[in-house]
């Protein structure tokens, strides 16, 4: 029965070994794919950064402040649909949760399924809109314009707003950042607005709508780069961990195999010795 | 040899200083950031003048222009650089911001150099959009066709 147990364990170990080796192959290939997507995303982000930074300049220079009002807060949480990318989605979800706890009159527009899953259980009534099919292909301005148009068409009103996303720093690090969003009223009441010449409400409306699309586009680009680099790191770690498991399992496998052989030899030899002594 | 080199250095130092003194007498320059979502044309570059087409009229921006905001119309943006050269770009739409400190942010949805435009393709687009308008049924479709006509007319004008 010990013999039977030995070979049974041997089979179990070899099954486990095969499955871990497969997993390592998968994570390695995911890492390669993410590395390629990351290079492309970083290149596009470099071209989009002056646009995104330029889009925020007016609000800084005109010293626009949040509206004094009770219309609540709007958070646009930018993320994506796909997982296995480290802390990218959970860091956004965490900040949204603390924000809603601090300010219950908050509406959230979620870009990307993963954050929706995080928030759905406890904060379903704060979710105003969810955008899906995000992250598979690199974002273009048209996507951001579509989201911006839906937000505008839904007629959400807010006194204070922000876009929450993961800003890309380096291949190994990203920072969850927020960009302020201002309502048309906030812009109209900005302290330095009178400095700006010949503005009517039409121009302000068109300007803020275009800004919304531009800022959303920029945050999508930053987030995509952070996500791909984070996935690259996560898959690399997973491959390394799988490699360690493979080493340990191979060691156990070899030891078990040798133990089985030794046991068989001992039985044969002791059997032969018993026969000899009988004779 | 070393003496002449150090003499040259002294001379060039004084030369630059003189240039700097003269520099203060010039008008303050303005810094232009002209970008589209997928490309950067100018990033905080000092330029002399920018002509922009906007819905409130086409106007030229010089340093110390009064701060304003404007929405871009499909048309040609002309940038007059500091070295005297002129560059023209066709923009489809966007916004322009002129701030108090003479920084200008020109954010265009699409911007291409005018010499990359093909006039026959532009005329074809115009014909297409006109037939679209004729066959448009809903208000939204009509508005989209009218926008298309406006852009293609501007494109044809830019090519000529």
From TrEMBL, chain A:
InterPro entries named among the record's database cross-references: ATP_synth_F1_ATPase_gsu, ATP_synth_F1_gsu, ATP_synth_F1_gsu_CS
The keyword Ion transport appears for this protein: yes
Membrane topology annotation: Peripheral membrane protein
The record's section on SUPFAM superfamilies has:
ATP synthase (F1-ATPase), gamma subunit
Q: Which keywords belong to this entry?
A: ATP synthesis, CF(1), Hydrogen ion transport, Ion transport, Membrane, Transport
Pfam families reported for this sequence: ATP-synt
UniProt GO MF annotations: proton-transporting ATP synthase activity, rotational mechanism
- Compartment(s) of residence: Membrane
Q: Which GO terms describe its cellular component?
A: proton-transporting ATP synthase complex
The record's note on quaternary structure and interaction partners says:
F-type ATPases have 2 components, CF(1) - the catalytic core - and CF(0) - the membrane proton channel. CF(1) and CF(0) have multiple subunits.
Return the similarity comment.
Belongs to the ATPase gamma chain family.
The family database entries (NCBIfam families) matched by this protein are listed as: ATPsyn_F1gamma
In Swiss-Prot or TrEMBL terms, this protein is called: ATP synthase subunit gamma
Species of provenance:
Daphnia magna
From TrEMBL, chain B:
Please provide, alphabetically and separated by semicolons, the GO molecular function terms listed in this UniProt record: proton-transporting ATP synthase activity, rotational mechanism
Transit peptide in keyword set: yes
Q: Which UniProt keywords apply?
A: Acetylation, ATP synthesis, CF(1), Coiled coil, Hydrogen ion transport, Ion transport, Membrane, Mitochondrion, Mitochondrion inner membrane, Transit peptide, Transport
Signal peptide (UniProt feature, chain positions): none
Extract the InterPro entries matched here. Answer: ATP_F1_dsu/esu_C_sf, ATP_synth_F1_dsu/esu, ATP_synth_F1_dsu/esu_N, ATPD_C_metazoa, ATPsynth_dsu/esu_N
Identify the residues that the record assigns to the ATP synthase F1 complex delta/epsilon subunit N-terminal domain, covering every copy. 30-111
Instruction: From the UniProt record, list the coiled-coil ranges.
Output: 119-146
Which compartments does it reside in?
Answer: Mitochondrion inner membrane
Q: Which GO terms describe its cellular component?
A: mitochondrial inner membrane; proton-transporting ATP synthase complex
Q: What is its main location?
A: mitochondrion
List each copy of the F1F0-ATP synthase delta subunit C-terminal domain by range.
Answer: 117-158
Q: Indicate the quaternary assembly.
A: Component of the ATP synthase complex composed at least of ATP5F1A/subunit alpha, ATP5F1B/subunit beta, ATP5MC1/subunit c (homooctomer), MT-ATP6/subunit a, MT-ATP8/subunit 8, ATP5ME/subunit e, ATP5MF/subunit f, ATP5MG/subunit g, ATP5MK/subunit k, ATP5MJ/subunit j, ATP5F1C/subunit gamma, ATP5F1D/subunit delta, ATP5F1E/subunit epsilon, ATP5PF/subunit F6, ATP5PB/subunit b, ATP5PD/subunit d, ATP5PO/subunit OSCP.
Query: Per its UniProt record, what NCBIfam families does this chain match?
Result: ATP_synt_epsi
Primary role:
Subunit delta, of the mitochondrial membrane ATP synthase complex (F(1)F(0) ATP synthase or Complex V) that produces ATP from ADP in the presence of a proton gradient across the membrane which is generated by electron transport complexes of the respiratory chain. ATP synthase complex consist of a soluble F(1) head domain - the catalytic core - and a membrane F(1) domain - the membrane proton channel. These two domains are linked by a central stalk rotating inside the F(1) region and a stationary peripheral stalk.
In the record, the note on similarity to other proteins reads:
Belongs to the ATPase epsilon chain family.
Which PANTHER family would you find in this protein's record? ATP SYNTHASE DELTA/EPSILON CHAIN, ATP SYNTHASE SUBUNIT DELTA, MITOCHONDRIAL
HAMAP family from the entry? ATP_synth_epsil_bac
Q: What protein does this entry describe?
A: ATP synthase F(1) complex subunit delta, mitochondrial
Say which species the protein is native to: Daphnia magna
Q: What is the lineage of its organism?
A: Eukaryota, Metazoa, Ecdysozoa, Arthropoda, Crustacea
């Amino acid at each position: 029965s010990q013999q039977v147990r030995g070979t049974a364990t041997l089979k179990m170990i070899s099954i486990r070994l095969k499955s871990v080796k497969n997993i390592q192959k998968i994570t390695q290939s995911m890492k390669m794919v993410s590395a390629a997507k990351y290079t492309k995303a970083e290149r596009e982000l470099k071209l989009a950064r002056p646009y995104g930074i330029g889009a925020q300049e007016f609000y800084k220079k005109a010293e626009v402040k949040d509206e004094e009002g009770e219309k609540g807060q709007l958070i646009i949480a930018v993320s994506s649909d796909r997982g296995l990318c480290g802390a990218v989605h959970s860091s956004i979800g965490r900040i949204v949760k603390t924000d809603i706890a601090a300010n219950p009159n908050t509406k959230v527009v979620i870009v990307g399924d993963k954050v929706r899953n995080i928030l759905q259980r406890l904060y379903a009534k704060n979710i105003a809109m969810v955008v899906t099919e995000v992250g598979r292909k690199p974002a273009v301005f048209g996507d951001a314009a579509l989201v911006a148009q839906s937000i505008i068409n839904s007629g959400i009103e807010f006194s204070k707003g922000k876009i929450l996303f993961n800003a890309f720093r380096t291949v190994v690090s990203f920072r969850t950042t927020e960009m302020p969003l201002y309502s048309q009223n906030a812009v109209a009441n900005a302290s330095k607005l009178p400095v700006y010449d010949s503005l009517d409400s039409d121009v302000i409306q068109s300007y803020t709508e275009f800004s919304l699309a531009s800022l959303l586009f920029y945050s999508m680009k930053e987030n995509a780069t952070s996500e791909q680099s984070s996935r690259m790191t996560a898959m690399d770690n997973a491959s390394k961990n799988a490699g360690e498991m493979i080493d340990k399992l191979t060691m156990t496998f070899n030891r078990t195999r040798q133990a089985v052989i030794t046991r068989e030899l001992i039985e044969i030899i002791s059997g032969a010795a018993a026969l000899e002594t009988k004779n | 040899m070393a003496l002449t080199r150090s003499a040259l250095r002294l001379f060039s130092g004084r030369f630059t200083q003189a240039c700097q003194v003269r520099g203060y007498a010039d008008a303050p320059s303005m810094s232009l950031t002209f970008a589209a979502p997928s490309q950067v044309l100018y990033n905080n570059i000092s330029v002399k003048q920018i002509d922009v087409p906007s819905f409130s009229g086409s106007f030229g921006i010089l340093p110390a222009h009064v701060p304003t905001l404007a929405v871009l119309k499909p048309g040609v943006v002309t940038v007059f650089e500091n070295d005297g050269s002129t560059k023209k770009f066709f923009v489809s739409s966007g916004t322009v911001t002129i701030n108090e400190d003479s920084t200008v942010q020109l954010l265009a949805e699409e911007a291409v150099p005018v010499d990359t435009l093909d006039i026959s393709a532009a005329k074809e687009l115009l014909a297409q959009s006109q037939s679209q308008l004729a066959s448009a049924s809903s208000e939204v479709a009509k508005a989209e066709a009218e926008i298309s006509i406006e852009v293609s007319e501007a494109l044809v004008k830019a090519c000529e």
